[in-house]
Amino acid sequence: MSFLADMDSLVAYLLPLAPHLILIITALIVPAIGFKSGKAAAFFSLGAGLFAIAVTAYMMYTGYKGDFEGLYMFNDFTALMIMLFLVVFCLVVLMSISDSERTKHHGEYFAILAIATVGMMLVCAAEEMISLFVGLELANIMSFALVAFKKNDPRSAEAAVKYLITSGLSTALFLYGMSLMYGFTGTIVINDIIYSLATQEITWAYAVAVTTLIAGSAFKISLIPFHAWVPDVYEGAPTPITTFLAVGAKKMGFIVFFKLFLLMFVVVHFLSAAAGEVAEIHQLQWVFALLAAGTMTVGNIVAISQNNIKRMLAYSSIAQGGYILIVLSVGTDYSMAGGLLHMITHVFMKGGAFVVVAALAARGLGESIDDYKGLAKRAPLVAFAMMLFMFSLAGIPPLAGFYSKFVLFSSAVEGGTWIWLVAVAVVNSAISLYYYARVVKAMYVDKGSTTERFRVPVSFKIALAVCAIAVIVIGIYPGPVMELCEMASFEYINGFLEWLKSSPYV
Amino acid sequence: MEFIQFTWLIPLIPLLAFVIVGLFGGKFKNGLGSVAILSAIAAFVLSAIVSYEYFTGDLFAAGLAYIPEPIEWIAFGTYTLNFGIYVDSLTCVMMLFSSFISMLIFVYSIGYMGGEGKRKRRYYAEIALFLAGMLGLIVSSNYLEMFIFWEIMGVCSYLLIGFWSFKHPDGDEASVKAASAAKKAFLVTRLGDVCFMTGLFVLLWAFGSLDFTAMFDDPVGSLVNGNGTTIMIGTLLLFGGVIGKSAQFPLQDWLPDAMAGPTTVSALIHAATMVKAGVYLVARSYPLFVQNAEMMLIVAVIGGVTAFIAASMALNNMNLKRVLAYSTISQLGYMIMALGAGGYMIATEMAHGAADIDGAVGYTAGVFHMMNHAFFKALLFMCAGSVIHAVGTEDMRRMGGLGKKMKITSWTMLIGCLSIAGFPFFSGFWSKDMIMEAVMEPAVAGAASVFLFLFVLALITAFMTAFYMFRLWFMTFAGKPKDEKLHCHGESPVSMTLPLVILSVFAALSGFLMFFWLNDIITFNVIGGAFVVGGHGHEGMDILHEILYNQWTYVSLALSLFGILLAYLMYAKKAIDPARLNAGGNTRIYRALTARYYFPQLYDEIALRLGYDVAKGVDYADRNLIDGTVNGISNAMMGSSGMLRKLHSGHVQDYVAYMAVGVLAVFFVFYILIMTGGF
Q1: Which residue from A501, B517, B633, B663 lies 20 to 30 Å from B445 (Cα-Cα)?
Q2: Of the candidates B101, B88, B97, which has an alpha carbon nearest to the alpha carbon of residue B140?
């Protein structure tokens, strides 16, 4: 009896980390399977990923909220983000099943991938700076290995080294910021840090700490001017891993931003509202606005002149990061909901585009946009899906990308301060159409050198179908997903405000 | 049973046809064209029933729109975005003529696209989606919904204009042209779409909603934020969308190039859908546009200038379809100008505090002309298609004498030409003279001398229109064949000529509708400070009286007749040699016209310089300049420590230094902001 009771309490104790544990166990088992067969390892990882999604969804559905030792928590926001990372994980696994770029070490590959995903999931759940940092580093270090996985391609190794060095610098910066922060707040609990960030007088040290924290995370999101590594690494890494970095790891940086700075603006506005004052725009909001405007503009403009499709997508994902950063300058729960929605749709449209690239690369097609000429004849369905993704990224209704952009931009309209930023963003999405349309033109309009049909592996077909359906369904009926995002952001911010009200600070 | 409840089915039927044809069309020999045609017929029949119910119902009598409870599509923050239906008399007129003409064009396609084989599936699927986009736009109850359908049409037009990009019947060069034309149409109209979308955000901010009901019922009082200036900016941006979509100056250039698509697509774009969407947007947004007289002045001037320059470019063009394309732009300019003039009158009267304004001639004239133009332009394009189908070229210099071989086509086309030239009692005559009157009204009232200028432009345009249309007709059908090698297959099949005959009846007679039916429908009034669409029109006899007793009617008529006569003398009688007038095509103005006033060159320059070159420049800077600067700093910082350098041959040390500079930049921006207390 007591054993069962112990089991019950153990389960209750570990429940906040259930999705993480599933993947950790997977990572422990997968190498063994990998010895036998790479395919089996892949399917096992896929199954585990899907199971973890189901568990998370169920926990979210039942309204479960929990906390592990004050280190990690589980609520609607973390659940949504964990599911996002798990979807990315499953997508990457699907893409890796028939990946010809990887020749051996199948088991390790999937294990490392699982651990990297765990790292990202820990970042979502972290409640204090050290556990956050552990998550970040876990994801980072695993990514180095993954980027270098194309053993026969020197570009892959080169990319890994570049990634390692630049990432090392960003980690150092982040750690520096963290320790400074600890120096003048005396705490590592994020909620307390946010409060003191929001209320403290701004000093040199404060500015340095904030700047380094921003720079450390900006590296992940590849904001201008922290983007230089992106094109090289995205081009050199195996395509599934590029996908992983572009649609997964990138989001980690946003989560850090949400956790620290978005809540900080919320506190600032809450306190001034409580004091009966009109909320002023915090200086950092301007910094983020400038970063956002710069990032989207440079990303889009440089993307125009790219001829390699992976580099083009790399710059385009830099630009997409700029759009999401609008959330930080607006700093409301609605904008956060818009940002979350765009993060989700971005997974499917950008992920989908990379799936197409990987699927065609698996059949020997090059990575130059010219190689895509006449694709509509050679692989009609793949070309159609690519067209959907391109148009969705460009924000053409009624696809998912249009909708999430619309919500994101319109949340910035409220209040009136950031209308200029919206204008910049809209002009930018118009510019972006040029290079997205270029791909569509190559596929549908230009004549290819051959009309030989492509046979795309089944696993890619499934991944493509999932992404294409998501892009269409979210575009036509965004209601449910939008509600999830609203619920997550509302709960996140309100939960924090409630903590604040019950805390000794107020 | 109330059919009006099922208005939402009108766009949905063609949409379903798109799905069915798209999915299963490949399995059938004719690409399931019949499904597309049936869907257009069904959409038209339903539109007719809905319109009948609306016009005989209480709502119309009370001057209200039919607005069922919209479906809440999504709510976020304080905004709710709906998907709803908005039926008023403008909606009814629009959907009636759009679906009717599309129906005829679809039928016509059976003959015209008969030889396309397997690609018929794509064709029929796309035109069905195109129609769904247009009908959806017409019945939308808010701007966002409208924008979505607007964009669907944009993508469809891209695909349809580029339809022959794989294998153009005229060879490879034409294929490339088709591809680049498609891209141009897409990108240029997209420029307008950006304005439209920015306008949406401005209006959303100003009103807190994008629903027509919320915005139109009380366009100033309900403002959440902002003021008259905000509305002005918002409407100006919306009008930017119109300029793109309806090919107004200075974005008119894509429409002639869009001729690279199949002729049926041109007919669809020019007559029933796409370009009409822009004019519709202005008419629909009248309650917002008339808030500001300057805004309406801008609209009118853009319209007038467009009408003039497009007509002048048609004067010496040798391509059958391109002449028609220029004439479309010119006629669209007329419509926009009329709407602007009418709105200007309302705006100034409202500024003087008038609570009741009885109708705006400009509004009636603009919408009326849009309808008439739909009939005669569809007719003209389908006639041109019939000719091209028969002789296989679009070059008018090689045609001539086709009238004897293609009796039905030549006679129906003559009706179309008479109508567009404003020959008395054909439909174009009535609406064009109403436009003249509308433009004259503010000019006579001394409201703005600008309108006098516009009126002169409109008069000259009327002359040019008559001239180039008859030049086209005489060059094609009159005289003797000019090119012996050109083989004419003779008259086109019944599926093509039948729509021509039906349309020619409308092109000839639709103008008379104004005197006993449309006069009470296409109106825009201000009653007790509220805007009312439909009802309270002038008596038919009054309109007739006004047109027939206005001396300017006879001036424009005389100019039109002179244009026709001149064309006859130059191209049929050969009494005047055109070469003598333009020094064999060497005068400066002739060359400027052929080069379309150098607009395409200008665009290319701008696009290349500003677009691609800037992109390359930024890329270069991104790779070299910044890196170089950073290099210098990093060298200074790291001194001779070559450890990082030796690690790898790439630029990784630059990247790291790059980041270091980034950190400094962020820090200084932040610090400056702190010192100055924000912007």
Answers
A1: B517
A2: B88
Q: What is the pLDDT of residue B648?
A: 36
Among the listed residues B437, B420, B436, the one whose alpha carbon sits nearest the alpha carbon of residue B428: B420
- Residue B645: pLDDT band with limits 50, 70, 90: very low
> What are the tens digits of pLDDT across the range B51-96?
888 888 888 887 788 888 888 777 776 777 788 888 888 898 899 9
Residue B13 sits in the same domain as residue B127: yes
Q: Comparing C-alpha atoms, which of B376, B403, B260 is closest to residue B319?
A: B260
Chain A residues close to B146, C-beta within 8 Å: none
pLDDT in tens, B109-120: 887 877 766 777
Chain B positions in Cβ-Cβ contact with residue A404 (cut-off 8 Å): none
Last residue of a domain, one of B594, B624, B652: B594
Q: How many domains does chain B have?
A: 3
Are residues B338 and B408 located together in one domain of the fold? Answer: yes
Same domain assignment for residues B521 and B539: yes
A423 contacts B162? CB cut-off 8 A = no
CA-based nearest distance B570→chain A, Å: 42
List the 601-630 stretch of B: residues with Cβ below 8 A of A: 611-612, 614-616, 618-619, 622, 626-627
B640 pLDDT exceeds 50?
no
**Domain residue ranges in chain A:** 13-502
Q: Look up the ipTM and state it.
A: 0.75
The pLDDT of residue B638 is above 70: no
B608 with B587, same domain: the answer is no
Chain A residue with minimal CA distance to B676? A283
pLDDT digits (tens, 9 = 90+) for A113-171: 999 999 999 999 998 899 999 999 999 999 998 988 887 777 788 888 888 888 888 89
Are B187 and A207 within 8 A, CB to CB?
no
- Amino acid making up residue B336: I
Contact A486/B193, CB-based, under 8 Å? no
Give the tokens for residue A48: 């585990």
- Contact assessment for residue A147 and residue A160, using Cβ atoms and an 8 Å cutoff: yes
| Chosen domain end from B561, B594, B627 | B594
Name the nearest CA neighbour of B539 among B527, B528, B550, B547: B547
Task: Name residue A315's beta-bridge partners.
Answer: none
Residues with Cβ within 8 Å of residue A239, at least 6 apart in sequence: A95, A99, A101, A310, A354, A357, A358, A361
Alpha-carbon gap, residue B228 to B215, rounded angstroms: 13
Q: Is there a single domain that holds both residue B130 and residue B157?
A: no
Chain A positions touching B225 (Cβ under 8 A) are 416
- d(CA A224, nearest CA chain B) in Å: 8
Domain that holds residue B639: 600-676
B576 with B619, same domain?
no
Q: Residue B584's CB: how many other CB atoms inside 10 A? A: 11
Looking at residue A134, its pLDDT comes to 93
What's the pLDDT band for B159 if we cut at 50, 70, 90? confident
B678/A301 Cβ within 8 A: no
- The 3-state DSSP class for residue B479 equals coil
Please tell me the pTM assigned to this model.
0.82
What's the pLDDT score for residue B608? Answer: 58
* Interchain pair B670, A486: CB under 8 A: no
pLDDT in tens, B192-204: 888 888 888 888 8
Q: Which of A406, A433, A440, A483 to mutate to test the interface with B (most CBs of B within 10 A)?
A: A406
- Has residue B634 got a pLDDT over 60? no
Q: Is residue B565 located within the same domain as residue B525?
A: yes
| Minimum CA–CA partner of B610 in chain A | A301
Is A400 touching B (CB cutoff 8 A)? no
Which B-chain residues 200-239 have CB contacts (< 8 A) with chain A? 201-202, 204-205, 225-226
pLDDT of B643 over the 60 cut: no
> Contact, A212 vs A56, CB < 8 A?
no
Whether residue B152 is found in the same domain as residue B105: no
